[in-house]
Structures
1.
Amino acid sequence: MKKSKDLPMHVQFFLPIIDALKQLGGSGSPSEVKDKLIELLSISEEELQEVYKTGVSKIDNQITWSRVYLERSSLVDTSDKNVWSLTEKGVKTNLREEDVLDIFKDIHGKFVSDKRKPKKKPEAEPPPAEGLQHKEELLSTLQVLSLASRL
């Protein structure tokens, strides 16, 4: 696979995905994008067969994470799971390798800060008004029974 010397492996697909979508006319199915990436990057069959211990394809995983980052940076729209499209920003952009690292750091920083934020505990809802009426009726009945048992 053709790799950039200056980019870590986990961001190698950012620029090629943008290029692939541009060559596909601005949008394509996930499989069309992957096929175009295989062509553009000269990904070998051997590389396509590499998997993590979990059985997930390394190439598919890297493409997926790159898509997530590009989507969160508003360069690619994947609201339709069957179509990846360049946004207006994605069409106009001329990303450089330095930009790729900035995108990664920015989006990754948001992932990390979101994990560190304390989760809000849901506020207890007040009981419904009819539930209060039921309690009052029950209390009244118990009081009457208590008085009756003394007689």
2.
Amino acid sequence: MGAIKTTPTKTTRLKRREFCRSLPCVALGGLSLSELSKMALARTASGEGTSASSKESPMAAEEKMEKKIKGIDAKVISVKGTCGLGHKVGDVVRFTEKGVEGMICIHALYSMLPAVFAMMYEARFPWLTDPDKKTHPCTDAAYPVVFEITRIREA
């Protein structure tokens, strides 16, 4: 987002994610943009609205998320039994905006795509300890393959 004016002569930058995390959604309906900006800045300055359980500071997480995502890797981290397609531990499939690179079972692909697209477009899953890594099992109950889905960011 752009700059938010707090006074006629002073401009303060407030990052979009800080703003969204700083206010409950219910409060957004009846307030003007200037009132919301003032409240968000006050809560951010006081440390409210930030997760205490996070290992990295909110600013560090914000800066990390500003790096462009090059793609998503899905790496096989475990196989129970024998996979029908032959997936083995260490196999990697890469998802980019241009397509899919590598071999993947159609059933695993179909169940994994919502998570891959969500991660490609910066979705955050609050239950993950690392917001850039998530595990995903395929749908084969007899011989499950577990993938680790990882965001690959530009350096």
